[in-house]
Design goal:
heterodimer, A: mainly alpha, Four Helix Bundle (Hemerythrin (Met), subunit A), 6 helices, elongated, B: 983 residues, six-stranded mixed β-sheet, kinase (chain B), Histidine kinase 5 (chain B)
Amino acid sequence: MEVGQMQRRLLEYTKSLFMEGVLDNQFLQLQQLQDESNPDFVAEVVSLFFADSERLLNDLTRALDQPTIDFKMVDSHVHQLKGSSSSIGAERIKNACVAFRNFCEEQNIEGCMSCLQQVKQEYCLVKNKLETLFRMEQQIVAAGGSIPMMELSF
Amino acid sequence: MVCNMETDLIEDMDIEGLPSMWPEDIGSDKQFNVERPGGGQDMLEEVTIPEDQTIVDFKRLLELTNYTDKGSSQMAYLVKHWEYRQSNAVRLLREELDNLSRQRQESELKKLEILEEHRFEEEGYGGDKRPISIMDELSDMWKDVCPRKNDVVFQSKRVEVDAEYDTVEYWKQRALDLEKMLEASGQREQALMEKLNESVTNLEKQSSPVEELSQILKRADNFLHFVLQNAPVVMGHQDILGKTDVEIFSGAGVKESQDFKREVLEKGLPAKREITFETELFGSKTFLIYVEPVFSKSGETIGVNYMGMDVTDQVRKREKMAKLREEIAVQKAKETELNKTIHITEETMRAKQMLATMSHEIRSPLTGVVSMAEILSNTKLDWEQRQLLGVMISSGDLVLQLINDILDLSKVESGVMKLEAAKFRPREVVKHVLQTAAASLQKILMLEGDIADDVPIEVIGDVLRIRQILTNLISNAIKFTPEGKVGIKLYVVPEPPFAKEGLKQKSKAYQSATDAVKEEKHQPKSQTASDQNGFHDKKHGEGYQDHKHDDDPGTPVSHGNSMDEDLEATVWIRCDVYDTGIGIPENALPTLFRKYMQVSADHARKYGGTGLGLAICKQLVELMGGRLTVTSKVHCGSTFTFILPYQVSPIEENSDDPDDLSDMADQDSVTDDVTAGFFQFQPRTLGSLFSSNGTSRSKKLLPNSIGFGSAHKVNGFSETSYSFPSNNRQKETAPLEDACSVAEVAETLSEPESSFSHSPEPENETEVSRGKQCHVETTSWFQNPATESTSHSEANREMIQTSKTNEPQKICEMQEKPDRISQSPSSSSAEVPETKPKPKPKILLVEDNKINVMVAKSMMKQLGHSIDVVNNGVEAVHAVQCQNYDLILMDVCMPVMDGLKATRLIRSFEDTGNWDAAAEAGIEQAMPSSGSSNHFKRIPIIAMTANALSESAEECFANGMDSFVSKPVTFQKLKECLEQYFP
C-alpha cells in the first residue's frame, strides 16, 4: 500500500475514533507530547494504560465477587481507572466510570456489575481500536512515512 | 261667598292646577327668578288685563283640551272640580230646604200646639206637662249642623201674661200675645223663603262650569302676564310674545338646549339638565332646564314642556363648594403624607440612634474578642487552629471596621462629631500613612508621597481625621491597583470658590479646640532649620534651593506667605491620592460616595470592603470645610482629590517638641528631615534598613516576631545572593549620597515569599553561616543606621536568639547551596533581574496514577521543567521535609493520604516551623535535622482535581491550596498555571 494512502487511512481511522467518542481531545494532547526525543510516547502511555487498566479491571471483578463488597475499594479502583482513562482521552471508558462511581455511591451491586461489564466492553473496544491505530502507524513508519498529525480542530 | 271662593281658587290652582310643570325637587319660591310681591300688594295691580278676553270659545276649548293628554287631564280636572262644587252646592241647598221644611213643620206644629194649648187651657190646663218647645230642641240641633242659622232670630218666648189667670183680661192679653207670635212666625217664614230664593239664584249663578273654567284660564293668563312682567331681567316681555324660543334666544347654550329638547322628544322621558347660556345682558348664566315630553292622546310625543330656572348662583356656589371640598381633600392628603413622613423620619432617627448605640455596644465586646484572638494567635497552635483563628480574626476585623464606619457615619450625620484642632506636620502624616500602607502591602506597588515646598511644615487641623481620610483613600487605591504606583501629592492652592461657606463651617467645627492650640503655639522649638534643610536642598537641587517657608519665592499663595504676619492664617492644601489602578467607570462616579455603594457587585465580591469608606471620607472632608472629588479613567487609574483649609501657626522656629506632634510620638522623627517633600516606598527593595526614613517605624509595624525572625533566618543561605544586597547597596547609597530622602521600608520582611530578596549585610550572613556567635555583629549592623530605636534592637535580639538555635540547620543549608540558588523563586529575581539568570524552579508532582504521572511529566518536560514525583500525600510531606520546592502539583484524591490533608500539613509547617502536625498525623520526619529552618516561605500548591466544580475548588482553597487545575491536565492548562507562578 502506498504511504500516502496509508496516511490518509490512518487519519480517517483516527477521525472515526473521535467521531465514535472512543477518544477525545486529550488523546491529541498525548500525540502532541510525542516528539523526536520521545518518539513512542503515545504508545508507551497507552500500553501503560492497558496494563494498569487490566489490573484494575481484575481487581474490580474480584472485589465485586466478594460476598461483602468493599464499595470504598471499588470506588477507589474506579476512580483510578477514570483518572487514567481521562488522561489518555478514552472518553467512553471515562463516561462508563462516572456511571460506575454513582452506583458505587448508592452501593447498588447490580448497577456496579452491569457497569463493570460495560467498562470492560469499552476497554476492549478502546484497546482494539488503539491497537489497530498503532499497527497502522507502525506500518506507515515501516513504509518510511511519517505519522500524520490530526488537526486539533475538527 | 263667590269672592271667597275665587281667592281660594287662585291659590289652589297655582299648585293643584299645574302640578307637573315644575320638577318635584324645586320646592321653595326662592329658586324662581320671580320677585314675590310684598304682603298687601296686589299682585295684579300693575297688570292691565283686557276684560273682553274672558269670552270662552267652547269649541276651541274642547279642541285645545282634546289635543293633548295634558289638556284633557286638565279638562277632566276642571270638570271634576266643577262637579264637586256642584254637588256641594246641591248638598247645601238640600240642607237649606230640609231646614226650611222642618221649620215650617215646626211652625205648623207650634201653631197646632198653641191651638191645642188654648184648647187645653180651656179644658183645664192639663197640657202643661210638656213645657219644652220642640222648636227649642230643633234650634239646638241646628246649631251643630248649620251655624249659619244663628243669624235667624228665632226665639220661643214663653208668653208672659201679667193679668190674673182666667180673667177676661188674661185671655185677651194671651190672645194678643199669640197673635204676635204668629205674626213673628209668619215673618220668619218669609225670611226663610227669601233666603231660599237667594240660594236658588246663587246656585244658578254658580252652576256654569264654563264660567269657572274661563275664570281659571284667565287667572293663568294673568299669571303668565305677571311672570313676564316680572321677568324683564332677561328680556322684555314684548320681545318674546309671539316668538319661538329659537327666535328669542341666541348665543352659546341655545344649541345645547335645543339638542336637549330634541333628545327628550325622542326618548319620551322627562329630564333635567344644566345648561349655560350666554345672555347679552347678563353674561354667562346657568339654567336648570326641565323638559317634559307632551304626548298626544294616541301616545305620540307632540312636543315638550320646557322650563328653565336660573341656577347660576347655585352652580357657582356648588362649584366653589366642590373646589373647597377638593382643597380640603388635598389638604388632608398632604397632612397624612406629612404625618407619614414625620413618622418615617422619627423612625429613621430612632433606627439610626439605635444602630449607633448598638454598634457601640457591639464594638466593645467585639474588640475583646478580636484582641484576645490576636493574643491567641501568638501562642503555639497547630495549622488547623491557626487557620481557624486567622478566619476569626479577619472576620472580626471586618465587623469591627464596619461598626467603626457606621459609628463614624452616624456621628458625622448627627453632627456629634467634633473636630480637634492640633498642630501637625503634613509631611509626616503623609509619610506615616504611606509607611503604614506599605507595611501591609501585598503587591508590587510603588508608594509615593510628594509634598510641595509651599506646604507649611506645620498646620493646624484634625490630624486624626485627616489621617483617616488619607489612610482610607490610600488603602482603596492600593486595593484597586494591581500594579504600578499609588501616591499622595500635597500642594497649596488658592482659596477655592466654595471656601466661604466651608470656612464658616470649619471655624465652627474647630472652635472648641483652637484655644488649646494657641497655648501651645509659643512653646520653644529647638529643632534647627539647618538640620532639615540639609537634605532638602540637596535633594531638590537648584529647583528648590530655598525651601524655607517664610521666604520661599516659590510659594505662590498669599496665605502661605502671610504666615509670619498673621497668627492664624488659613492655607488651602490640596491633596491628590492617585493610583494607576483599574479606574472607575463614569457611570459609577455619581454613586461613588454614597453609603454602601461599590462600583459593582462584582467589585464588592472581588475586593471586599464595606462600601462605607468613601462616604465617610466625603463627610469628614465636608465637615472640615473642604471638598472631596474624584477623577478617573478606566484602566488608567483614579485620582481622589480633597482640598482642606488649615490654620497655619507662625513658625519663627521649627518645632520639634514631641508634644506638638500629635501623631508622631516617635522620638526618631526628630532627626527626620521635617521638610522632606518626597517619599517613596518600594516593596521588596533591599538595603532598606539603611535608609534614613522610617526604618525603625517599619520595624515596629511588623506584626510579630516570627515573620521577622524568619526573614532573617533565611538570610543565611546564599553567597551568590550576596551580590544583590551589595548591588542594591550601591544603588541605594547613591541616592543617599545625594541626600535624597528616599524612604524604603522593609515592610515586606513579614512576608514569607519575599524573604529571599531581603538579604542584608554580608557580614551578618557570613557570621551565621560560619555558625559563630553573631550577636555582636548583628547588633552592630543594626546600629549602623543612625535611627536606631529600642524596639528595633529588641526585635533584633529576638531574631538573633532564633538564629542561634538554628545554626546547625544553617550549616546544613549551606551544603545545599547550589540547589537553593536554583530554587530562588523568580519573584525575587524579577525584582533584581540584572543580578542573576532565572533559576529553574523545582517542582513536585504528587499523583498516584501512573498514567497521569507520565502525561504530566511529559508535559512538564515540554515546558522545560523537570519534576519530582511522589505518589501520595505522605510521600509529598516527606519530600517537602527533605527538599525545597517552588511549586507543588497536588492530586486531590489519592490513597494513603489525600492532597488536601498533605497540603494542610505542609501549610502547618510553614506557619509553625515544625512538623508536629505531620507527626500527629503519623508521618515520621524523614530527615530530622532539616526540618524547621529550611524554609518558611509559602510553597504554592496547585491542586489537580478530577471534577472542577466550584465546591471542590473552594475546598482546595480552604485547605490552603493556591489554585487548581482540572483534570485531565492539558498542556495549555499546565502552561498557564506555571506561568502564573514562574512568569
